[in-house]
Amino acid sequence: MANFYKDNEDILFLFKHMDIAGVADVIEEGFKFAKDFDHAPANAAEAAENYELVLDAIGKLSGDFIWPRSEGIDRQGSHLCEDGKVKYADGIKESLDMLAKAHVMGFTLPHRFGGLNFPNLVYSIAIEMVSRADASLMNIFGLQGIAETINAFASEEIKQKYLHDFASGKVTGAMVLTEPDAGSDLQSCKLKAYQDDKGNWYLNGVKRFITNGCGEVLLVLARSEPDRSGGLGLSLFVCDRGPTVHVRRTEDKLGIHGSPTCELFFDNTPCELIGERRRGLAPYVMSLMNGARIGISGQSLGIAEAAYRIARDYAASRKQFGVAIEKLPAVRDLVIDMKLEIETARALLYETSRVVDYDIGYQKKLEFDPPADKEQLKKLKDASRRYGRYAGMLTPMTKYYSSEMSNRVTYNSIQVLGGSGFMRDYPCERLARDARITTIYEGTSQLQVVAAVRGVCSGTAEKYITELAAANYEPQLQDLLDTLKQNTEAMLNAVTFIKDKGVEYMDLHGRELVDIAICIICGYLFCQQAGSKFDMEVETAPGDNGQKKISMKKRKEMIARRYITRNNSLIKSLIESIHSGNVSSLEQYEALAGPVPTEK
Amino acid sequence: MAYNCVVAIKQVPDTKRITGEAMNADGTVNRGALPAVFNPEDLNALELALDIKDKFGGKVTVITMGLPAASTVLREALYRGADDAILITDRKAAASDTLATSYILSCAVKKLDYDIVLCGRQAIDGDTAQVGPQMAEKLGIPQVTYIEELLTMENRHLSARRNIGNGWQEIKCKLPVLMTVIDEANEPRVPVAIKLMKYKKARTPIEIQMQLKKENPNASDAELKQLADMKIAELAKQGLLIKQWDLNELQADMQWCGRDGSPTKVHRIQSVVLTARESKTVEASEQGITDMIHELITDKTIS
Asked: What is the pLDDT of residue A547?
């Protein structure tokens, strides 16, 4: 009997630590839905109770039902049948059926479509748990942004046509964006959208690497303006996967075997336009991608959590040289680093999700229910703009940090298990394979850095960090706060230096700058956790001092101390590298990389 | 063709988490020492009922007999999709054995409009597997026990496969019928999110009364009754009142209920402690395996 919610003390702590009431108020629009829907919460306390009940149910489902199927899913994979249909692995089919019955496939959709109207913060927790149970299942469970995009931009008619079915789990969807020549560079999409005499739209062309391309509802980015190149010639369409959509192949992949990756051929497929023409890439797909990036961050976190737990258990039980290997300094360090990287990623992801919830909430309020008072309206507009910028910076940061972290942690879990970790007897190798895609899809790490570094250099990071620094902290953390302040000053100096050097230099050293910003932001988040209004007793490993329980706040203080102290020297070296002015990658590439290999 | 199902469920101590204090000195289960859970195979029975409802329509009603705390399993059934829930609670039903329990439950089922009655094979606290079959006898309807798969339902007949220990048997039967369900039959569904959100506030009248008493320790009985009546009316209006029946309501014959109606006597309690650490080496040959199988059959380890 496993419950991936109840067995994760960090999640339980953060749920109580974070501003759930504030988020609930924003998302439930002042709890106005309670009068029309008997399941909608009437106040913040009831909303929090609802979130916990549903997370508990998903935690149980993940632990008891999905996790035991994950090995089979990986071995079996999905297959393209001769009739052109895609067969999911049995475990995926059974799990999707269970998730549909649990009515959790419309997590963030409004009540009126049968959705739960839950905040992204709670959705991120759910995605983490489902991904810990099976990473590939998340690719379908975590694709709810498709329905969310329809909800945000499509006509009421299209919403009514699709959203009830999404919420009840009757249909699943796919984001149909990538083409053979349009990967990261979606602006160069070629798939053709055209209208007949009556104004009906049709799609024609090929899409590649489409996650769950066999889903029933497809959201397709296509060129509706043939004479217009670039992003402004693209529109977003929705279609059913009817007889004119052919799955031509499914990819044979390194990991996430349960998630079918399809090549699709659209043979004059009837479709409907979402929103307005020429707005397909920006803002529609950008908004869809931002949601998906948060999803991948949660997926990465879940995979890492699964890998850590296996390594943690092994480090305590495996004996070498007469002792459990966790007694060896190098292993101790490895295990702690894994755990702390996971908690860092979780702090950043949940904070990002909270910011996104406020961003969406403020936008909605401005659009549908703006305050009459001018002063109030101005305040709301300012807050909306500010949170929009924070979300725009934090989203690529969390995607970048979590996915890179997941790769490190899953590799290190193999390392802790040694030879056993390399074998397929343990899930570590599968988890490492599953983690590998996370730094690639929904925008590579390199692209996340490009997006995040602009937030760091434009003053958004400074504003956000100033806000973090202005919070109330406990006095014993003062030395750490002083360090973070010095780190921030150093970062701002580096920003000035980089900006002087130009855009190319910014992209060359962007990663270093983003790493510094993440270290500072997460340093503050840990300090906030260490001074939380909430505390709980958590278990410790049986150690020499015989202590079995410790206050979570105390533990978070230890984490903050280790994290900030260690990062202080790391930041110094990153700053030094930025100030070095080294541009050898730009100027000496030909000599250093050598020629393209040819057969001789 | 819609079918109405009644599922008899039980709240049981979680015997998977047994501790030193699990048994009383008199050999009965110390219910306070263990967390209370939905009897596992009753979840399989509920799942089968919900599956029938999904496929053919109809209504699923869950009933349970027990203390006020048993309302919890009724809520859990509502979370999963049951349409109606009934708590049978009465001090005079205390100390009922399987005979009395099946009598009381059958009185309740008779008051309901049903085509199919479902029970789990057995409860993990007593492991008797008697209540289901005894109910069928008292209701005067056929029983199909140990269901592992429901095969067909048509023209008010069902066919099902039942596990008979060393194989299986297919049975065709006319409705109404009582079925007992085993854990291999299905994988019980999890709570439905929007039902969790709605029914978390569902209460039985006795729970409301107990809660009000706790919240208003100085209130008079008359005041408490007034408060309770108001709350009960409010919940009833919202569809969140769980029905509650007592033995009067069931018009039960008291000589068949509670201690008077329970002929079972505990003869002896044996504490079984498995201490043997003997081991035996089986030769890795055809003969060795044959001998081992023979021995296991002879001592009835396998049949």
From this structure: 76
One domain for residues A186 and A209: yes
Within A181-269, where are the H helices? none
Under-70 pLDDT residues of chain A? 544
Output phi, psi for A517, to 5 deg: -60, -40
Reported confidence tier of residue B301, pLDDT bands at 50, 70, 90: confident
- How is domain B5-204+242-256 classified at the CATH fold level? Rossmann fold (3.40.50)
Q: Do A326 and A433 have their domain in common?
A: yes
Based on the fold, state whether residues A147 and A80 are members of the same structural domain.
yes
Q: Could you give the angle at the alpha carbon of A467 between the alpha carbons of A461 and A471, nearest 5°?
A: 140
Find tokens 């925008």 and name the residue.
A443
Please check whether residue A290 is in contact with residue A105, taking contact to mean a CB–CB distance below 8 angstroms.
no
CATH of the domain at A558: 1.20.120.470
- pLDDT for A148 equals 94
Structure tokens at B21: 């204090």
pTM of the complete model: 0.92
Chain A 9-38, CB below 8 Å of chain B: which residues?
38
Q: Is the model's pLDDT at B194 over the cut of 80?
A: yes
Subunit contact A116:B189, Cβ cutoff 8 A: no
> Is there a domain that residue A24 lies in?
yes
Looking at the partner chain, which of A1, A57, A98 has a beta carbon nearest the beta carbon of B193? A57
> What CATH number did the domain enclosing A259 receive?
2.40.110.10
AA identity, residue B174: K
Domain that holds residue A468: 456-540+548-581
Name every chain A residue with its beta carbon within 8 A of the beta carbon of B191: 53, 57, 102
∠ Cα A411 A415 A420 (to 5°): 110
Question: Domain-by-domain residue ranges, chain B?
Answer: 5-204+242-256
Interface ipTM: 0.89
Determine whether the interchain pair A102/B238 forms a contact, defined as Cβ–Cβ distance below 8 Å. no
For A317-343, write each residue's pLDDT tens digit. Answer: 999 999 999 999 999 999 999 999 999
Contacts of B198 in chain A (CB under 8 A): 38-39
Query: d(Cα A245, Cα A520) in Å, to the nearest integer?
Result: 48
From residue B90, give the alpha-carbon distance in Å to each of A498, B95, B226, B249, B264.
78, 11, 22, 10, 20
Rounded distance between C-alpha atoms, residue B151 and residue B174, angstroms: 14
Same domain, A150 and A59: yes
Mean pLDDT score of chain B? 91
- Kindly state whether residues A344 and A428 are assigned to the same domain: yes
Q: At which of A225, A248, A281 does a domain end? A: A281
Q: Identify each DSSP E strand in A304-352 by its residue range.
A: 319-320, 323-324
User: Does residue A220 lie within any of the structural domains?
Assistant: yes
Using CA atoms, how far apart are residues A72 and A108, in angstroms rounded to an integer?
A: 30
Is A369 found in the same domain as A324?
yes
State the Cα torsion B112-B117-B121-B122 to the nearest 10°: 10
| Amino acid identity for residue B205 in this structure | P
Q: Residue A574: what residue type?
A: L
- What is d(CA B97, CA B264) in angstroms, rounded to the nearest whole number? 6
